[in-house]
Write a structure and sequence with these properties.
Layout lengths: L1 E4 L6 E4 L1 H8 L9 H4 L4 H5 L13 H4 L1
Antiparallel strand pairs: 1-2
């Protein structure tokens, strides 16, 4: 599972890594799919470069 969170809008969720690979391919970059899942983020829709969407994967620092 890959968890995502956004401290700005409160978004949180988790995605199965095997499903992400099946959907986007084994060679996809990690954040190729975040544009799709954050399309309805109010910070992204506002297009304010000073207050962008803050989606991140909090568990990745544990892996690296």
């Amino acid at each position: 599972m890959l968890r995502i969170t956004c401290d700005k809008c409160g978004r949180s969720g988790q995605y199965r890594v095997d499903h992400l690979i099946m959907r986007y391919g084994i060679d996809a970059k990690l954040f190729d799919w975040t544009d799709e899942i954050t399309a309805d983020c109010p910070h992204k829709q506002a297009r304010n470069l000073n207050d962008q969407c803050g989606v991140r994967c909090p568990d990745l620092s544990k892996v690296v």
